[in-house]
Specification:
598 residues; alpha+beta; 8-stranded mixed sheet; two-stranded antiparallel sheet; 3 domains; Butyryl-CoA Dehydrogenase, subunit A, domain 3; Butyryl-CoA Dehydrogenase, subunit A, domain 2; 57% helix; 19 helices
Length: 598
Amino acid sequence: MIPYSAPIDEMLFVMNEIAELKEVFDLPAFNSMSPDLTETILEEANKLGSAVLAPLNQTGDINGCTFQNGLVHSPEGFKDAYYQFVENGWNGASFPTELGGQGLPSLVGTALSEIWYSANMAFGLCPLLTQGAVELLQVHGSADLKAKYLPNLVSGKWTGTMNLTEPQAGSDLSLISTKALPFDQKYRIFGQKIYVTYGDHDLADNIIHMVLARLPDAPEGIKGLSLFLVPKFLQNPSGGVGQRNDIRCASIEHKLGINASPTAVMVYGENDGAIGFLIGKKHHGIEYIFTMMNNARLTVGLQGVAIAERAYQQARNYSFERVQGRLPGQRREKGVNIVHHPDVKRMLLSMKVKAEATRALAYYVANRIDTATHHPLGPKRNAAQARVDLLTPVVKAWSTDNGFEAASTGIQIHGGMGYIEETGAAQHLRDARISQIYEGTNGIQANDLVGRKVARDKGREVYNLVDEIIIFIDASSIARSEHTLILCKNLKIAIKELTRSTDWIAKTFIENPDYVSGSAVHYLKLLGIVAGGWLMGKAAMAAEQNKDKNPTKVTFLNSKLLSCRFFADHCLVEAPMLSELLINGDAALNLLEESHLK
């Protein structure tokens, strides 16, 4: 597998020119931050990512986790890598300093997470779940639970998980049957959970499970679920690891990818019951767990960015070295590096642009999270949160779809060698596939978008976004580059189609939700393309303006303009088709019966 190195110049460009890092640093919570400090942080993270985590990616995939005598063992090197990750303070990078974290903005933390996922996606899944557990406890935990569990979760000494799925309850959480029985101001938990990422492992001293379960007096359905904190080991009087709880890992799954990440079947209460502690109020579990799930959806979307980047780096470097064939019309006998073949150029640029556009969207949403959390003015916070809510399903689904497509294209560039495991190209495809499924499949994300985010407010937030994009297009009249002007021309057509589609959803969903649901994925992709096109346009404008100021960066900035042009020519032009598919593509779906599929 070709080595990985974080694209720090690209990441800093996106943070500064698209995601407006200075705007984040102007927030009172981050006044001590600076661009130079940010660059230093990314460079240090890249040392761990490239030198420690990335070399373990392929060996972890080959060897995987093992399950022996009821114990999960991580692949060789992972335990030491996790120790270095925790010891250097990376686990607490974006957590508040009062909890023992580093207090970095979400925008900087997002860039760090991209490095972990690109270097070793299976490894990065462990701190992902811990981060979600911390955020959940911050918002919904009692003072006692926060005091007992947050310090060790923030440091990474203990890790967190999310226990939702059961054999009969996948995406439909209303079918959950795990029980919680009151006991001495605590609860005893009985049931089985599956697909628990890092449900058991040997990296940390303790594992803190967030478990959805049903109390005896609970109403039926999703509104009857409560949320419990259930530790693998109960705390001793001094706050350390004490008695083993009534929890057992029954097995770990054999998977298509992310083999170094243990996906566990967890059994609660085979004896007296696993001791759990109620989080918040009874029967509000689904409300609380969405704090963790929304965090996970954004970070899973970032995995799409990361896989696209890692697959691109591998395919690019391979194309520089691989000699094969001659160019059209070339008569000399000597072959050329495949990077010179027009079709390979097209594939490489498609991979590069997929990584750049999805990165821009993920980083932009991270800016909105920082504003929603820390801006001193309430209206600013509310507006930023509305944008986060709208774009969360887009970041999750559009980014992971693009990440998987990029990984597939990477195999194609390798040719036959891409199908051979030794090159490592196939691993990126296998690892990427799960990102389109977990934390709600991408079809679920699309239906959440059209139902909860668009139809519910009659498209108001989409129209707000369109207004911002129109302001940008009007300002683009100062553009000097043909590439930027063409993108803005195609972007204008795309927002017209987005507006048309949004109008149709607002009118149609209430009366005929099925008409919208079957084609919702096309709307999500359309919104992703429009938002991505807007941000790619901002990148192109910044590249134009910086070329004269930074002559040493001219090659990099010209590449941004080429990416902008490719996005205009190959992505934005899909907008009319996607709009048509949404509005008029449901005829066959509405007539389909089960017998037609036999």
